[in-house]
User: Fold this.
Amino acid sequence: MGILTGKTAVVTGSTSGIGLAYARAFAGAGANVVINGFGAPADIEKERAAIETEFKVKAAYSPADMTKPAEIAGMIALGETTFGSVDVLVNNAGIQFVSPIEEFPIEKWDMIIAINLSSAFHGIRAAVPGMKKRGWGRIINTASAHSLVASPFKSAYVSAKHGIAGLTKTVALELATHKITCNCISPGYVWTPLVEKQIPDTMKARNMTKEQVINDVLLDAQPTKQFVTVEQVAALALYLCGDDASQITGANLSMDGGWTAE
Assistant:
């Protein structure tokens, strides 16, 4: 029996990267899962089916658009009607855009705030009534080292992630007597397909080798000079779901190779 047997986890932005690692970790602990995100339908179906085959649980896919509150509520409802409950909610969907503030496109600001911050509010708002009714729940938000510190040219992303840290604390306080915890995980640079794809362009733009790009550009802020892995982030999320973590709530847990210690 896994620690989540009989429970259901909804993970936004989980068709690849960190989100998919969360979904697989929860499935490995016995949870049915609802995955969500964009991608080629065949690729999404392959990942969904693999979760069912490998972990002997049920997996559903929700195509909910994280900019649309009604679709986010629908995704929570899908988990409840398909599996009977939503016990774990992970708000993980996120996008990035980099630009000086005076040139930052207004529509990119609006979209990043919608997907990286507001979607978490809408998901939590929809999931909490069921969690309260059952007297148990785990809400985990993927923040970032940028929930604690800033980098230039990322005004929307840094604002959204600081917002996630504040939302996490507020929700934790509201739900403290209901056996529902709310925490955020703040990774530094994580090795994902998204990061990997940036390397060739940066090599060309900066006339650097792959190793130089990794160490001098990507891992410049990370004292360990190592990427965080998606499996490490997912393992922390799984720990937060267990009884041993029942008194961890409202926390912002850094996993950034020492980045925010400096």
Remarks:
- The helical segments are 17-28, 41-55, 69-83, 106-134, 155-174, 193-206, 210-218, 230-241.
- Residues 146 and 158 are 5 Å apart (CA to CA).
- Residues 191-227 form one domain.
